[in-house]
């Protein structure tokens, strides 16, 4: 059941709101704002109704406190302000702070119910659309961008420890070549169904490429528990593939798993992914169909580096670039690339332009869902600018891009291509402002 939390120090309006809504929604009432805030992680309402004028902590203060919460599922709760004021300046202030709507006092039950119903339906639609944009259509798992986002949230916002598993099917090209691409899709879907049963509700599971999957297991795991889980994954995936393909057990098909530990091997997705991919490469080179933890062999790298061939080294490096669009990196790597380009720019004679995009909001735009709009615009950037360009998210509402090989005369081509691919509604409600500078002329 959807739920509403009501915060009002006056008993009569509080009782009117509770009586009007309790037949349709779960309702919790508070006369003290601080208590309501302290229990928000427990109540987790779909809507928060707050009175504007209260002693000690008014509606603006509550609204501001909610928007500052680290948990995005709490900080994005629609906050509706109840007030008897008829002052447009107060409304503007509330909307600037992130209020969803205003309801006038004295409360009219029929109006209140309809207003809450409308907000609930709108939120359900937004959540559905946002969820749909994050899903890989073949498997029903999270897609690459959603995986990166959720894993980074676990690592950076929740400061979780955990395990990142990089999983790659063995000899999958043989499936497509021998059984056809339709069977290949069925194999991918079967593996996804198997993996769904081997993760918990608060873990992250996604498909990040053709036959590549990632799992982020939260928390600390013993080596024995990790070994058992990986062996279970390998056994069930191998059996599932062989059953679907109708072949006898053999060594042709299965899955290889590379593992990186957080925070020991990295504190963000890309660093962990690269180390897990190194570990997975180790498994592939030793016969496939098994698992390896990055730290278990990294001490041997110095010895191995003296005998590895250049072709093998290039293959390992290139396998780490799984991004299909522009090269998206974290801020620290972006700064390194920036400095490197500045250093070699005069020698390579290749111009570079730097562009800073900032998402704005029209006055009448819905101020919620900023994170969803950022992900959407980031996806647009990745698909629109060239594969050789570099991009980074550098704030709550900003992306920075390095246009490699673009000069002052033709840089507008890439920018116009990005701006023109936004919908009419996006341009109207969430215009993009950009600044351009020449890094290397």
Task: Label this structure with key terms.
441 residues; Alpha-Beta Plaits; Rossmann fold; single chain; 5-stranded mixed beta sheet; 15 strands; 18 helices
Describe this structure as you would to a colleague.
Residues 160-296, 350-441 form the GGDEF domain. One of its GO terms (molecular function) is diguanylate cyclase activity. By secondary structure, the protein is of the alpha/beta class. The protein folds into 3 domains: 3-133, Rossmann fold; 144-322, 2-Layer Sandwich (Alpha-Beta Plaits), CATH 3.30.70.270; 328-440, Reverse transcriptase/Diguanylate cyclase domain (Alpha-Beta Plaits). Helix content is 48%, strand content 20%. It has 18 helices and 15 strands. The strands form 3 sheets. A 5-stranded parallel β-sheet has the order 2-1-3-4-5, sandwiched between helices. A 5-stranded mixed β-sheet has the order 7-8-6-9-10, with helices on both faces. A 5-stranded mixed β-sheet has the order 11-13-14-12-15. The N and C termini lie far apart (60 Å).
Gross CATH architecture of the largest domain = 2-Layer Sandwich
Shape: globular
SS class: alpha/beta
CATH superfamily of the largest domain: Reverse transcriptase/Diguanylate cyclase domain
Query: What does the average pLDDT come to?
Result: 84
Helicity range of the residues? 40-55%
Count of helical stretches: 18
How do the strands and helices of this protein lay out in sequence?
Layout (H helix, E strand, L loop, with lengths): L2 E5 L3 H11 L4 E5 L2 H6 L1 H4 L3 E5 L7 H9 L4 H4 L3 E5 L4 H10 L3 E4 L4 H25 L10 H14 L4 E9 L1 H8 L1 H16 L7 E4 L4 E7 L4 H23 L8 E9 L6 H17 L5 E3 L7 H5 L4 H10 L7 E2 L2 H18 L3 E8 L10 H15 L5 E6 L2 E7 L6 H10 L3 H6 L2 E9 L1
